[in-house]
Write a structure and sequence with these properties.
This protein has one domain. Helix content is 74%, strand content 0%. It has ten helices and no strands. It comes from Pedobacter frigiditerrae. This is EcsC family protein. Pfam families: EcsC.
Length: 240
C-alpha cells in the first residue's frame, strides 16, 4: 500500500463516521425548512420535476447520450486518476454555476428549465468520474451505482444512511443484480429518489429568491456530488 492509498483509507474512515452519525437538531431543522419550501411549489411544477427525474433515470440506464472519455490505462496511479477527477469536478461546477446564473436571472420559467439541464450536467460528470476510476458505464449495473450516488449526495440524513448500506459491498452484489433493467422495480426507486433529490435547489423556483440562488446553488450542489462520487468510488477501489 502506498502513502496516498493509506491517506485515502483514513479519509474514508472519517467520512463514513460522519455519514453514519445520528441526525443533529440543526439537520432536522434544515429538513423541515426544505420540506416547507417544497410545499410552496405549485403542483404542476412538482409534476414537471418528477417527469424530468423519470427522463434522467431512463437516460442513465438506457441512453447513449452520455458518452464518456476513454478509460485511462490500468497502470495509471490512483493519485493521477484523482487529480483528473478533481479537475473534472471543478470544470463541471463552473459550467453549472454559469448555467444557474443565467437561468436564475431569467425568472420562474427559466428556473424551471434549469432543473433538467442541471441533472444532465451532473449525469455527464458522474459518467466521466466512473470512467476515470476504471468502471465501465456500458454495464447498466454501474449506471445503477451512479443513481445511488445521486441519492447518497442529496438525501436526508436517514435516507443517506440507508442508501449507503445498499451500496456497501457493491462489487459482490454485481453478480446477483438483475442483468436487465426491466427486472428491477424502477417505479419505487424513482418515487424514493423524487422525495429527496435537490430539495434545496427547488428554492430557485421561488420568486425573488430564485435569482440569488442560481449560480451559487449549482456550484455547491455539483461540488457536493463530485466529492460524494469520489468517496463512493474510493470505497470500491481500495477494497479491490
Amino acid at each position: 500500500m502506498d502513502n496516498y492509498e493509506a491517506q485515502i483509507k483514513l479519509e474514508l474512515q472519517f467520512w463514513e463516521l460522519e455519514l453514519m452519525k445520528k441526525p443533529s437538531l440543526l439537520g432536522n431543522l434544515a429538513t423541515k425548512v426544505q420540506t416547507k419550501i417544497n410545499s410552496y411549489i405549485p403542483a404542476k411544477v412538482h409534476k414537471a420535476i418528477t417527469a424530468a427525474i423519470k427522463q434522467m433515470v431512463k437516460a442513465v440506464l438506457f441512453g447513449s447520450t452520455y458518452t464518456t472519455s476513454a478509460m485511462p490505462d490500468e497502470e495509471m496511479s490512483l493519485l493521477h486518476r484523482e487529480a483528473l477527477v478533481k479537475s473534472k469536478v471543478d470544470s463541471f461546477s463552473k459550467t453549472g454555476a454559469a448555467e444557474g446564473g443565467i437561468t436564475g436571472a431569467g425568472g420562474f420559467l427559466m428556473s424551471m428549465a434549469d432543473f433538467p439541464i442541471l441533472i444532465g450536467i451532473k449525469i455527464k460528470m458522474l459518467f466521466e468520474i466512473a470512467a476515470l476510476y476504471g468502471f465501465d458505464v456500458k454495464d447498466y449495473r454501474e449506471r445503477l451505482y451512479i443513481l445511488h450516488i445521486f441519492q447518497l449526495a442529496f438525501s436526508s440524513k436517514v435516507g443517506t444512511q440507508n442508501v449507503y448500506k445498499q451500496m456497501q459491498n457493491w462489487d459482490q452484489k454485481l453478480i446477483v443484480l438483475p442483468e436487465s433493467a426491466d427486472q428491477f422495480d424502477w417505479q419505487t426507486f424513482q418515487q424514493e429518489y423524487r422525495d429527496y433529490i435537490d430539495l434545496a435547489k427547488m428554492a430557485q423556483l421561488l420568486p425573488v429568491v430564485g435569482a440569488a440562488v442560481g449560480a451559487v446553488a449549482n456550484y455547491q450542489l455539483i461540488q457536493k456530488l463530485g466529492k460524494t462520487a469520489m468517496m463512493a468510488y474510493r470505497v470500491r477501489v481500495v477494497s479491490r
